[in-house]
Amino acid sequence: MAVSLLTRQVSDLCLGKPALKSLSISSTIGDALLALKRLGENFISIWNCDHHHYNLSAVDRGFKECQCVSKVCMVNIICFLCKEEHLSNPATALQTPLSVLIPKSPCLVRHLEPNASLLDAIDLIQEGAQNLVIPLESSSKTSSRKKLVQGTLSNISTLHNNNRQYCWLTQEDIIRYLLNSIGLFCPTAANPINSLDIIDTRNKMALHYDDPASSALPFISRSLEIQASVAIVDSDGKLVGEISPFTLNYCDEDVAAAIATLSAGDLLAYVDCGGPPEDLVQLVKKRLQERNLEQALELVEEYSSGASISTSYSSSSSDDEFGMGRSARWMGYSARVVRRSEAIVCYPWSSLVAVMIQALSRRVSYVWVVDDDGTLVGIVSFAGMMKVSGNVQGLWVRGVLIEGSGT
């Protein structure tokens, strides 16, 4: 049974998944911002057909087809806008080529053939991949819909390499699949996490409640890369909240001004509960005025008043082409599902299966580990959980395969 589990083709995990929507790497950051909002996506894939640039590996450069080289989300754009020179002129900053947001490491997104095994997918995750790009089976029933998406969304594409569609396979998908077969690696699943060597203390990124939120920017970028979060602690080292890329991903670009002007503790309140309190909005405006960041101030005022956002920075199609009149544009927090900044925690003696269920039920890729008194100990991520479950089953499978071969 375990052999069947880990040698199962990754295409089995892609059934029912939507096709990736993508932008060319030649697009601008403004194009990506509009695409994320109008499509309601958390991430949008970035594709490149120039195989001599943009950090493609030697193997990938030898691959003749277009490649997905990265993914971009609101957090990438927010961190970019938080820089002083970009806050002073956000509209100009959004004209910057999208390629500046592509990380130097090319391993976060990897291509994998649909007939590859689940064990192959786990190996790539262990090497640092966050998303695996898998070709979808073609379907004549969806061909007309493909054309509609292509024609309507102008610079947004779902088709590559001879009209093939692709999907993401994520760490969450694999963990969910492994959880459904949790009995195959018992009693490991019932063991406490502090006995499995998966509590990560090295990547325990934390700020004090009164620290400037801007000091979290390097941590936010790093946590996005490793799919973790930034802990906010009090003077006793007790966990009081988090600045999570997954929460920021549901915010709008005006939160860049909040990060640049508020404390870490105030930022928690700013992004929590579906919208910023009025007193914090006024505090952000005051501090922007003191720093003569007039255009950033205009951005905050547009959102706080519910006004439409200027699209002069983008060459994307008009709202009418998306079936959206000006009065129906996105309205920031009020029209979007927002996660609270309350941190999700477990204890060193919590079992692996309990932590897996906790993370999956809350749609996060990590759980903070705290002591009885709330003192921060570390963090457990999907990558760590996968390392345990994958290693247990992988060793078992490889042993069975070797035994079966007579060697």
TrEMBL record:
Output the InterPro entries linked to this UniProt entry. AMPK_gamma/SDS23_families (IPR050511), CBS_dom (IPR000644), CBS_dom_sf (IPR046342)
One Gene Ontology cellular component: cytoplasm
Provide the organism lineage as a comma list: Eukaryota, Viridiplantae, Streptophyta, Embryophyta, Tracheophyta
Q: Which keywords does the record carry?
A: CBS domain, Repeat
Q: From what organism does this protein derive?
A: Gossypium tomentosum (Hawaiian cotton)
CBS domain residues: 358-383
What is the official name of this protein in its record? CBS domain-containing protein
Origin superkingdom: Eukaryota
